[in-house]
Write a structure and sequence with these properties.
The chain is α/β, with parallel strands linked by helices and 416 residues long. It contains 12 helices and 15 strands. The protein has helices spanning 12-22, 40-55, 100-116, 142-147, 153-158, 167-174, 200-204, 242-259, 296-317, 336-348, 363-367, 394-412, and strands at residues 59-62, 68-72, 82-86, 124-128, 189-195, 208-214, 216-225, 229-230, 265-273, 280-281, 284-293, 320-329, 332-333, 353-358, 373-378. Strands 1, 2, 3, 4, 5, 6, 13, 14 and 15 form a 9-stranded mixed sheet that branches. A 4-stranded antiparallel sheet has the order 9-11-7-12, with helices on one face. A two-stranded antiparallel sheet has the order 8-10. Strand 1 and strand 2 (68-72) form a beta hairpin. Helix 1 crosses helix 3 (100-116), helix 3 (100-116) crosses helix 12 (394-412) and helix 10 (336-348) packs across helix 12 (394-412). It is elongated.
């Protein structure tokens, strides 16, 4: 059969081989990937990605925050490109699909078009966004957030990791502080392919998630200040126990999110006791809270009820609790026309699909504030992500890449 734009399919084996082979960069004994942003392992995968893009005939540029852009020219270069891609960094105990699938599938789309000799009307641009995970530098999705103006470049460059290394120093150490101004790359629209990171598609036997919304996010940094005292000689009613206080806050977060559910979730993901000792009552604890909802009104309620709970717990426990909202990301409502293009492509290809809300944050959620954006989800085994056990099947990855290909073709057009 002659390959035309209408019947074009990506090379499933090539995409899968690329996913497996790039997992060596930061690969872990359990089959996962530890590739923290701007680390030596991140440099390895970036170097590979840059070379692979150049071999595919793309022009690679890098901005001053390390965001990578690989441009394939179209017939009409007066119009901005259609963007496609995701990220290549991982969690400390991450898998080989989260973000990586979207970036490598974008590369496979370009390779497929090259093989078929198809020129698009609009240019195409693959992206690899810096620090999507936020596991080394906070906040998450930093590169795309600065791209749309949510943070200044100077602010991002000054952020430091746990070892005191700044983003600027890390970029320079791996040679990925580029010359392109942040936000200078224009886009007509952007499509991001990603694993679902949840159990819905697998449970329902659907191959494609057509993402129409994304949850809003509230991030808090907290500090409890009680009083260290002897575990054996301090009566229970005289204690100012920071850890016991935190236990109540944790349960309050769970209760609030449950009562405002099902469209709400809450998590205390970090807690650090200052100078811990077996026989000392904890006097100081730093902690974090993550609360999310796709409804801005519910986000307001989450915040109000959390603050009310802390205000009741702290004096009763005779401690001080500082709670700072360090990041609020409003719910995302993806571009209806682009969402429709994704849905049309999935239907035309015969894939079982459903509309779905993203529970996780993504670079596409940031980009949607400035340019028309949509997302494609494929199932992941047991809904597991941010874990070395994260897994997806070759057919599902290929299906997502095919939907990406045909969505991009519908948006960019085929040159006549």
């Amino acid at each position: 059969m002659t390959k035309t734009a209408s019947n074009l399919q990506i090379d499933s084996s090539r995409l899968w081989d690329t996913i497996v082979s790039t997992a060596q960069f930061g690969g872990t004994p359990k089959g996962g990937v530890k590739r923290l942003t701007l680390s030596a392992e991140d440099k390895q995968v970036r170097d590979w990605f840059r070379q692979a893009c150049e071999q595919a005939g793309l022009e690679v540029s890098i901005d001053s925050l390390g965001n990578m852009f690989a441009l394939r020219k179209g017939r009409d270069m007066t119009k901005p490109p259609i963007g496609l891609g995701s990220h290549l960094d991982t969690q400390p105990t991450g898998g080989k699909f989260d973000g990586i699938l979207g970036t490598l599938a974008a590369l496979e789309v370009i390779r497929t078009l090259n093989d078929a000799g198809i020129e698009t009307e609009l240019p195409l641009c693959i992206t690899n966004w810096t620090n999507e995970e936020g596991s080394r530098f906070a906040p998450a999705m930093m590169g795309s957030a600065a791209f749309v103006g949510d943070f200044t470049v100077e602010d991002v460059l000054s952020r430091k990791d746990a070892a005191g290394i700044s983003v600027a120093e890390a970029l320079d150490s791996i040679g990925y502080r580029g010359n392109k101004p942040v936000g200078a790359q224009p886009f007509t629209g952007f499509i991001e392919l990603h694993i679902e990171q949840g159990p819905i598609l697998e449970a329902e036997g659907k191959t494609i998630g057509v993402v129409d919304h994304g949850q809003g996010v509230l991030w808090y940094d907290g500090k409890i200040t009680g009083f260290e005292s002897h575990a054996g000689s301090t009566p229970m009613h005289l204690r100012r126990d920071a850890l016991a206080t935190l236990s109540e806050i944790v349960l309050a977060v769970e209760k609030i999110a449950t009562e405002l559910g099902p469209n709400a979730v809450g998590t205390v993901g970090e807690a650090v006791i200052a100078s811990p000792s077996r026989n000392v009552i904890p006097g100081e604890i730093a902690f974090t809270i993550d609360m999310r909802s796709a409804d801005a009104t519910i986000m307001d309620q989450l915040d109000q009820r959390l603050r009310a709970a802390v205000a009741e717990i702290a004096p009763r426990r005779k401690v001080e609790v500082a709670l700072d909202l360090v990041w609020r990301k409003e719910p995302t409502h993806f571009d209806p026309a682009l969402v429709g293009s994704v849905e049309s492509a999935a239907n035309a290809l015969g894939y079982q699909n459903r509309r779905i809300t993203s529970g996780a944050g993504h670079d596409a959620c940031n980009l949607n504030t400035r340019i028309p954006t949509a997302m494609i989800f494929v199932p992941c085994k047991d809904g597991i992500s941010h874990n070395e056990l994260e897994d997806a099947t070759q057919p599902d990855c290929a299906a997502g890449a095919n939907v990406l290909l045909h969505t991009v073709l519908s948006l960019a057009g085929v040159a006549k």
